[in-house]
Amino acid sequence: MHVIWYTAMSMDGRIAGPDDDLSFLSHIKGDEEDAGSEFASFMSSIDGVIIGGSTMRWLLAHGESLPASGKPVWLVTRSSSLAAQVSALATDETPVHVVSGPLDPVVTAIADSGCSRLWVCGGGDVAGQLLAIDRIDEVVLTVAPVALGSGPALFDGGSLPDHEFTLQECRPYGNSARLVWVRSR
Amino acid sequence: MHVIWYTAMSMDGRIAGPDDDLSFLSHIKGDEEDAGSEFASFMSSIDGVIIGGSTMRWLLAHGESLPASGKPVWLVTRSSSLAAQVSALATDETPVHVVSGPLDPVVTAIADSGCSRLWVCGGGDVAGQLLAIDRIDEVVLTVAPVALGSGPALFDGGSLPDHEFTLQECRPYGNSARLVWVRSR
User: Fold this and answer.
1) Of B53, B184, B71, which is closest to residue B126 (Cα–Cα)?
2) Chain A residues with beta carbon closer than 8 angstroms to that of B179
């Protein structure tokens, strides 16, 4: 199973400002059409989503529902109220699995369920936990042309082991930068 | 005066690991000759250096002296012992100015001294303070192919105002990425 952390970050490596403020995203001005079709193409390429509690709460607070309609969701949370709230959104096409604890057996179970491309929807803590167990295969970044100075980082997780990545893509993307890093195996 | 934050960071935006550990730099494998001549060319282009206390302490602890021989240094510190230690290294060619407090008048004084290109040698806190007063004109980054998960960020400084930058350069640099951001005026 190929695990992809696809997200946007500020030029100083943050995926949100203080209090999960995502307003920095408004500075990203790419080719709107290209961005839309590229994200749609990425979404059609994945067959599962893993998401942390904070990111899920942000989606709900902003009137969004599950991150990807028609794709199974693994929600990482210990909160029974959040679990209940999100489970109520599940459908036959978009089942919700609530998980917690170490992510190693979780990722194995996701792979065993038949998922071949898993999107890490957020946040930096889930991504950090996955990197710590070397289960991040690809990082697709849109780097916004602003700095935030504080807020959660792309990877948050204490000191991570030095896993090296290979730079697969590095190009301007509208007024932003597109970097794609693939885990060197 | 043009102020340039020229540094390396991890793919998650950190300029050091925990305890100012810079071992992530060993993952950067560019064209050594190119890197050497490029840095030399950058160094010959600047006529002053500003450096924070932590970065200066790191240099001293690792057997280094002042960051740039032949260029005046402005050391931002409130520590009288560090100030004395670094001032003792000053020469006629490499004078040391110890400064503290708000950086706005400091930057004005540096410009008034005749400096036209100032290198921000580190760290993220000095860079964050400079960005907060909109005195960062250019950010030259080598992005290393590893994530750190913790450690000081490229800009550390609470919530910074949304100053937008223009992407001037975005290209592979050996196994790393080179990003150059110039402040949009």
Assistant:
1) B53
2) 11, 143, 177
- Kindly compute the dihedral angle of the four CA atoms of residues A166, A172, A173, A175, in this order, to the nearest 10 degrees: 140
Residues of A in Cβ contact (< 8 Å) with B139: 11
Q: Do B165 and A11 touch (CB under 8 A)?
A: yes
Please tell me the total number of residues recorded for chain B in this structure: 185
- Complex ipTM value: 0.94
Report the residue of chain A nearest B174, measured CA to CA.
A167
Is A177 part of the contact surface with chain B (CB cutoff 8 Å)?
A: yes
Q: What are phi and psi of A97, to 5 degrees?
A: -110, 125
The residues, ordered by sequence, that sit 6+ positions from A20 with a Cβ below 8 Å of its Cβ are: A54, A58, A151, A152
Q: How far apart, in Å, are the Cα atoms of B182 and each of A181, B25, B141?
A: 24, 24, 11
Angle between the N-to-C axes of helices B103-112 and B124-132, in degrees from 0 to 180, rounded to the nearest 10: 90
A-chain residue closest to B27, CA distance: A164
B80-132 pLDDT per residue, tens: 999 999 999 999 999 999 999 999 999 999 999 999 999 999 999 999 999 99
Its pTM surpasses 0.80:
yes
